[in-house]
Amino acid sequence: MTAAPLAPLDLAFWTLESVAHPMHMGALGVFTGAAPEAPGRAAGLLTERAEDVPGLGMRIRSVRIPMGAAVREPDPDFDPLDHVHLTAATKDFHATAGEIMAAPLDRRRPPWEAHVLPAADGTSFAVLFKFHHALADGLGALMLACGIMDPDPAAEPRAPRPVRQQPSSRWPLPGPNPLQLPGAVRRRAEEAGRALGIAASVVGATLEIRTSPSLTAAASGTRRTAGAVLDLDTVNRVRKQTGGTVNDLLIALVAGALRRWLDERGAAVDDVVPRALIPVSRRRPRTARPQGNQLSGYLLRLPVAEPDPLARVRRIRADMDRNKQAGSDRGAGAVALLAEQVPPLGHRLAGPVLAQAARLLFDLMITSVPLPSLGMKLAGCPLAEVYPFAPLAHGQTLAVAVSTYRGKVHYGLIADGEAAPDLDRLAAALGAELDALTTAVEQDPAVR
């Protein structure tokens, strides 16, 4: 692989974080049926296989031209032993994961790590992956992690797709092609108009903030993680009655869990409508190894103040439908698209300021991370649970990520350790909210 400039959004992610407030993402996978020697064998396999996954050897390096820019390039000194670590045995995977997630990645090396966590009872182990968003987005990080899992013996090698030869459109004379100028001018005008519309929506989103103090936090340099596992069949049964998509329902469960959690804390809930940023991938299907993050998003107000769980689902379903009709390149949630309009030096200068301003736009992130349906293994041990962790924005208490895997829904919660010492209660509230919705649907089957 050769050096390539960081895409504008990747550069934005690279400049937003600080040592005191890292913004990497992660995933905690739990592997069962392990023998006592399995964690050591797993660490050895991860180290060995990492050399054969090209993306894992890429570092981020600043360049002088263009001023403020950076490139993603192969690290000539790449050594997987610097990235794969075998920790001491632990009784609590999430407690250990929180401590590891608090530490920033080494920006001088390829920005990723894999930590193998043996269970104290010797019957399982976990692997915590950490990836910087400038190296890969959630889907890209998943592809990199899958590259160092056990190969699927049933998988057939894919034949390379034929490359269609496109007729050359290069202008044969020096200078720009005059035939392309009208289209280029039109695209620039459309991009400028879209950027102005997004900027206006961003300003509007900051005018009515109805969040809870429990969702804002000064950076403490600590992290806490927790997870919840729900039955996907139960989620689908409820969704068939309430309508909408599975993702709508999973977001509604977060809204209901937040209401329960705040109430248990003794915090007010009657006028709380926090703004959730819902990232949306803009990758085209079947894109082979796309370079850089391609993200937009929706900004959704969570009806935490609504006491009726079915009414919360209906509100979220209606709001998500409106967002989808408007498109992912419109509205305040599409703020990531503005990165494309900023020169590299602008990201360098404005990044620290924008990092401080994140909570003016949204109060928490809720993101979905796709996982393959086939069972994965490492060192012959099956992957039983997987908890994704989203980057935690500056000034915020909580970020939520969710994945479905082999008939289960896995919520991964990451929070500021000092602001949310009771994060386990929020994880438990997700299950309680699904139970409440199941009961409500059974009592009123005509909920559509």
UniProtKB/TrEMBL annotation:
Biochemical pathway: Glycerolipid metabolism; triacylglycerol biosynthesis; Lipid metabolism
Superkingdom of source: Bacteria
CC annotations in GO: plasma membrane
Biased composition (Low complexity): 162-172
Any one GO molecular-function label of the UniProt entry: diacylglycerol O-acyltransferase activity
GO biological process, one term: glycerol metabolic process
Chain residue ranges for the region called Disordered: 155-177
Pfam families associated with the record: WS_DGAT_C, WS_DGAT_cat
Positions of the O-acyltransferase WSD1-like N-terminal domain: 6-249
Catalytic reaction(s) noted: an acyl-CoA + a 1,2-diacyl-sn-glycerol = a triacyl-sn-glycerol + CoA
Domain annotation O-acyltransferase WSD1 C-terminal: ranges: 292-437
Primary enzyme class: transferase
Protein family per UniProt: Belongs to the long-chain O-acyltransferase family.
Protein name from the UniProt record: Diacylglycerol O-acyltransferase
Organism of derivation: Streptomyces coryli
